[in-house]
Amino acid sequence: MDVEKENFSDVMVLTLVAKDANLSRSDIFKEYVFEEIESGESNIVISFENVEYLDSSFLGALVAILKKLTPIGGKLVLVELNNDIQNLFELTRLDKIFIIRNSVDSAYIEFKK
Amino acid sequence: MNKLPITIDVEIPNDSDKIYDYTKHILDIIMEHLHLDLSYQRRIKLIIVELITNSIKHSNGLPTQIQLIIDHPQLSILKLEKGLQIEFSSPQQIPFENIEQKLHVSFSESNNHEIQPLDRYKFRFLNPIRKDELSLDRLPEHFGFYIITLASDSFIYQYDPEMKENRYIVNIKI
């Protein structure tokens, strides 16, 4: 899986390495995060620092992850979205559903609330 | 600006990791003929990415082509795909029996599109998201057609039963 994982206290930060968050990676990524959730992770940050574009398949995977996290009281924060990806969230109004922050540091604040 | 309309045919990639570079290439072609601001460029990129992603998912290797029709006041992006017609997981199917009423159709368990039949083999996707419907429980996990509908001014599907060809027609007012 093209993802770097770091844990800071009880927050897991996943940074996507590939520039394409697309069809070829969405199912693998979703399963990877599901396994992390099942092994006890519930505070998750996903960084799109390296990602150039995100397609509908990956968007669906993010929704599935959020649906899995929410009932167990978990939290998902998306960070470092470029303007095109931010625009996609706004267009679909998913910016009202997801917590989106500029940086990993600003994401941490969400877990202290 | 060159004399309009201009029609450009382009083949599409079958490797998902080439989609974005290809999308930028198509946008460059369009920009040779039209001056578009960033907002339009973003909409066009989203539409092309989703049209191609849909093909890679569902065309089963059958021939697919993108056709650009640059005109004024409209840019049309057509995807022509050989094969069987689109199927809904909801009861209604093409050819429609009643073209007067709007329909709710699904392409999977978790999505629900409102469409307006235009003839027995043709329909228009209607704006899919209303303000009072946005909740996580009811969110779909398939967004391709949603994105195309939201990013365009009209998104029409047509099936030609004689040619066995699916036509996805996306129009953007420019």
From TrEMBL, chain A:
MF GO annotations: anti-sigma factor antagonist activity
Segments forming domain STAS: 22-111
PROSITE patterns (UniProt xref): STAS (PS50801)
NCBIfam families referenced in this protein's UniProt entry, alphabetically: ant_ant_sig
Family in the record: Belongs to the anti-sigma-factor antagonist family.
Name of the protein: Anti-sigma factor antagonist
From TrEMBL, chain B:
Name of the molecule in the record: Anti-sigma regulatory factor (Ser/Thr protein kinase)
